[in-house]
Amino acid sequence: MPTRTLDFEGCVNFRDLGGYATTDGRSVAWRRLFRADGLHKLTGPDRTQLVDLGLATVIDLRTLDEATQRGSFPVDEVPVRYVGLPLTDVLPATEDLPDWGEAAYVAARYGEMVSEGGHMLTRAIDVLASDGSFPAVMHCSAGKDRTGVLSALVLAFLGVPDETIVEDYALSAAAMGRLLERLKAEYPDAVDEVAKYAPAVLHVVPETMEQFLAALRLEYGSYAELADFLGVTGSVEVLRANLLVDA
Q: What's the CATH superfamily of 15-232?
C-alpha cells in the first residue's frame, strides 16, 4: 500500500489523496493527485523524487505576493505545467490572526473562498480535468487552508464521504509545528512577526472542516448543485473518469 505522506526535505505537508473510498464502491487512484505546502524550497533529491513520480501539473493557490517574495516551483528542473491561481488576494490581517484559532471563524473564511474565489476554484478544477494533467499537485503555503478547500471540493465531487474528507483535512495538524519552525528559520530577522501567525498556522481541527462542509450543503443543497454553481459539472465527470478506480 502506498504511503499517504511523502517525505521531502523542502516541504513538510506533501500528501497523496489516493486510496480514499467513494460512496459508489470505487476509490481514488494512488499517485495521481497530491496536496502540499509551499514548493519553493525543494532540494535536489526532492526534485528527483517528483521527476520519478512523473509530476505533470502544479496548481499554486498562493497570493501573487507570496509567489513573488518566496519563489515558485522550479519548472526549469522539473518540467511541469505550472498554473498560478491565487485563491485569495491577501493573507489574513495581523489583527485577525487570533480568530484563526476558532473553528467557526475559519470555516466561515473557507466559505468565503468558495463564494468570492469561485472563479479560481473553477479554473483549478478545469485544469485538473484537462488532457495530460496527472499526476498533479495543488498547494499553498501551509497546505491546509486554501489547499484544504480545493482538496475538499475535489474529493467531494469524486464522491468521497464527508467524514473521510474531514479526516484528510485533520492530517495537516501533524505537520504544522514543523512548518512554523521552518518559517522562523527562513525569516530569522522576523521571528516575532512569524510567531504572530502561530494561531493561524497551528490550528487544524476536524470541527473546522465539518462546519465548512455542512455550510456548503446548506448553501448549495448538494455537491452536484455546487459543481453546477461553479460551472464544473463536465470537468467533474472527467475527473471521475480519470481518478476513480475499482476498489
A: Protein tyrosine phosphatase superfamily (3.90.190.10)
